[in-house]
Amino acid sequence: MSRTSDNNGAGWRNCLLLCTLLALSAGGCAGPGDAAVTVLQRTLGVEPESLDYHKARTKQAGDVQRDIGEGLTGYSATGELLAAAAQSWELSEDGRQYTFTLRPESRWSNGATVTAAHFVYSFRRLVDPRTAAFYAQSLADIENAAEIIAGELSPQSLGVEASGDFELIVRLRQPVPYFLSLLSHPSTFPLHPPAVEALGDEHARPGSFVSNGAYKLDAWEVGSVIELSRNEYYRADDETAIDKVRHHIITEAQAELNRYRAGELDITANIPQESLQAMREQRPDEVRVAPYLGNYFYGLNLTRPPFAGNAKLRQALSMAIDREAITEKVTGRGETPAYGWVPPGVAQYESPQFPWAGMSAEERHAEARRLYRDAGYSEEKPLQIELRYNTSESHKRIALAIESMWRVVLGVKTDLINEEFQVLLSHIRAQEITEVYVSSWLGDYNDAHTFLHLLESDSPSNMFGYRNEEYDAQMRRAATKTDPYTRQLFLEEAERVLLADHPVIPIYFRVSKHLVNPRIQGWGDNVLDYHYSQHLRISLPD
Amino acid sequence: MLRYASMRIIGAIPTLLLVIVIAFLMVHAAPGGPFDAERVLPPDIERNITHAYHLDESLPQQFQRYLRGLLHGDLGPSYRYRDYSVSELIGKALPLSIWLGSLAMSVALLLGVAAGLLAALQKNTFFDRLLTGVAMIGISVPIFVVAPLLVLAFAVHLNWLPAGWSSSSGLSRYLLPVFALALPQIAYIARITRGGMIEAMSSDFVRTARAQGLGTVSIVRYHALKPAMLPLLSYMGPAIVGILTGSVVVEQIFGIPGLGRLFVLAALNRDYTLVLGIVILYAVLIILFNLLVDILYGLLDPRIRKR
Q1: Which phi and psi (to 5°) does residue A205 adopt?
Q2: Where is average pLDDT lowest: A112-116, A117-121, B33-37?
């Protein structure tokens, strides 16, 4: 009996607590804040898996890491490659050795000087098999890196060395024209060796992460927010305008939009498709839609019928798709219809297009039907295929549109199959039951190679089973060219070979979509969709 | 009572072990692995990663390793959140879910029981019908409809309350999630209480009490309330576990870093150790709360205690 009454008592106490809570909260919606401290509220659509430069993988982890750390190179707000921790560099005549001169004024967040040895330490840790880094391949072009990753050589044999405190020498296996942009990737940021030695895998946690960027890591509440504050030791701290940055983790796009509309966020990571039009009308100055280094395409299983060795069928299916209808009526986010593989806006590259890109719809459909017949299909003997996509309203709508285009133009019978993302991935990898499936590719660096490499025979991500010797040879020839223009010509030729063969069906080129509060200054659209907090300013009301 | 409780706890160990084995086999049987992504890793790098997490060992070896850790209280490292261990992640998410859940459950109990009792005492009146109708709506309208509407009304348009979870918004951030969590529970509890009370009020001992001239208040307080609460009690065990361990929908909509959301993300990411850790926690809580309910049953109903 006594226990029952205790229980009732607890209930009343809870009730009292809630009443107090209600009373307290009624008066205090906005938290107390120091008016002099500027705080940027921005969003990450996916939670970073780690902030350790060598354990992270997602773009969102990179967004935070670019605020915290600084590599040898970096990007401006509008996407131009800049010298960052390095103040200058020289490339040897054979294109295989870089000599970087570091900025002597660079400091760690604990005040210590950033030296060349710290870069050497970090590069070695990245390729060390014991680190098990996802992005170990960022530096795979450095001498001996591949052998170290494979466990055949020790990390000490990596082709990097510090010559004095501020000179770093990097030897490459072959000329790598996009190497400087690789060095802006967080996996190549320097580490403070004493901190890593003392804390091991826990060195990248709030409170102990010694970093060299404009901000330092204060707190990480998993599932909620990552908080950064100004690193007063940063070499260019006087140019940093915003004192604190809060990266909110909001995976639900509609919830993110609500918080933006409620004034709780300055920058969103996304705009829900169904709200984009309304936002364009209500807040035209705040919607930022810009070309993004990514494409959306349908992958084909080239190891099995009907697509193995059947380029005509592949082309017929590709030509029957009305890409303008998809980007205008189905997605409607300002995407560009894709008539090629490499997205527009890639540095030093003129993306080629399918030879039939300029045809009218009628001509295109007639040609598609001819190819379809040549491939051995007809109205009486229609192609029956399965189209797989992972669970998402947007994939579903696009798949439905394409299914009807194929049916109307060619008479293809398509089964739409919806699978959970990991299930779809495992089916694609197995290459046993897949036929057509949704896929996309995001560039890691601003160079055509990041897209073209995917379809080389030896690329690990070539899950289509595509093998084309002519394409591989063209890519190899491009790799040996040190002159940027000659290399560009070879790469463009490689893409032309690819497009003639139709190994995949490009549908559209992606765009980045953000809402940016008008009080945020210094925002620049760029194809990489990198927006360093240090480039932004908050204009305070007069 | 103590002997009964300890027997039940010992009896639960095989159940728990079975849950662990089944959960272990199921997460490993799900297609895809924790490190799979569209971007396929070069074979050497993939080998280094699977080796670092012992995923290159056979399944029995992995299970043995997991169980050994578990016996030492170690739930292992998270595969997705590579800077954190499973115990740390659960340790951060669980208190928040418990806190929110207790608040929501307290509100739900208070309002639900009161409404249910009033409706039962005024059976078949307008008030009763109104309440039953409202409860029906409360049960049938899903949280994923109610919660965004609450946000739109109170955060976006009226701007009274924060739309999401942010430590800078203080205690006001609790209001909308607690209300959204409590709403369906209020409806359920009111319905169950009403049913239990009506049944108790029509039982023989209440009729006898009435014949002896006792007033309604005394009858409810001393005779009807306890038996009327029994159906509610059996509902409360699993309901409390459900609400304490977090609601996926509410946590997703308000961006609350609670356990429900962590569980779903862990399953989608194939974060084997995190899924297992949360499953074990759920199993332990369900076993404990069912035991607690049985003990409370005994306290409320002397017939059960004697048996």
Answers
A1: -90, 160
A2: B33-37
pLDDT in tens, A494-528: 999 999 999 999 999 999 999 999 999 999 999 99
A169, A204, A239 — which closes off a domain? A204
B163 touches A at CB < 8 Å? yes
Size of interface A-B (CB pairs under 8 A): 212
CATH of the domain at A321: 3.10.105.10
Distances (CA, A) of B215 to A64, B206, B273: 68, 11, 59
- CB atoms < 10 A from the CB of A238, how many? 7
Q: And the tokens for B209?
A: 């009490």
User: Contact A168/A181 with Cβ under 8 angstroms?
Assistant: no
Question: What digits encode the pLDDT tens for the residues A233-288?
Answer: 999 999 999 999 999 998 888 889 988 998 889 999 999 888 888 999 999 999 99
Question: Whole-model pTM?
Answer: 0.84
8 Å CB contact of B166 and A134: no
Taking the C-alpha atoms of residue B13 and residue A536, their distance in angstroms, rounded to an integer, is: 57
Q: Is residue B103 within 8 angstroms of chain A, CB to CB?
A: yes
Given CB atoms, is B48 within the 8 Å cutoff of chain A?
A: yes
The CATH number given to whatever domain includes residue B223 is 1.10.3720.10
Q: Which stretches of chain B score pLDDT less than 50? A: none
Answer yes or no: do A362 and A475 share one domain.
Answer: yes
Of A134, A262, A440, the CB nearest to B41: A134
- To probe the interface with B, which of A4, A8, A16, A25 has the most B CB atoms within 10 Å? A25
Residues in A touching B33 (Cβ below 8 Å): 422
The H or E element that residue B201 is part of is: helix B175-201
Q: What pLDDT was estimated at residue B306? A: 57
Q: How many C-beta atoms lie closer than 10 Å to residue B298's C-beta? A: 16
Same domain as A102, residue A26: no
Amino acid at A227: E
DSSP string, A405-443: HHHHHH--EEEEEEE-HHHHHHHHHHTSS-SEEEEEEE-
CATH number at residue A144: 3.90.76.10
Interface test with A, best of B47, B48, B236, B248 (most A CBs within 10 A): B48
Range of the domain at A163: 67-204
* Contact between chains at A25 and B151 (C-beta distance less than 8 A): no
Report the domain count for chain A: 3
CB spacing of B39 vs A461 below 8 angstroms: yes
pLDDT band at residue A20 under the 50/70/90 scheme: very low
Across the interface, do A223 and B48 touch by the CB < 8 Å criterion?
Answer: no
Rounded Cα–Cα distance for residues B75 and B55 (Å): 16
A112 CA: distance to closest CA in chain B (Å): 25
Within a domain: A321: yes
pLDDT of res. A3: 34
Q: CA nearest A21 in B: which residue? A: B171
pLDDT band at A33 (very low <50, low <70, confident <90, very high): very low
Nearest to A45 by CA among A57, A63, A69: A63
DSSP state of B203: S
Q: Does A28 share its domain with A78? A: no
CB pair distance less than 8 Å for B163 and A201: no
| Residue from A115, A138, A154 nearest A54 by CA | A138
Q: Which residue of B has its CA nearest to A30?
A: B169
pLDDT-derived band of residue A8, with 50, 70 and 90 as boundaries?
Answer: very low
For residue B274, the chain A residues in CB contact (below 8 A) are none
Q: Which of A313, A239, A291, A231 is nearest to A501 (CA)?
A: A313
ipTM: 0.79
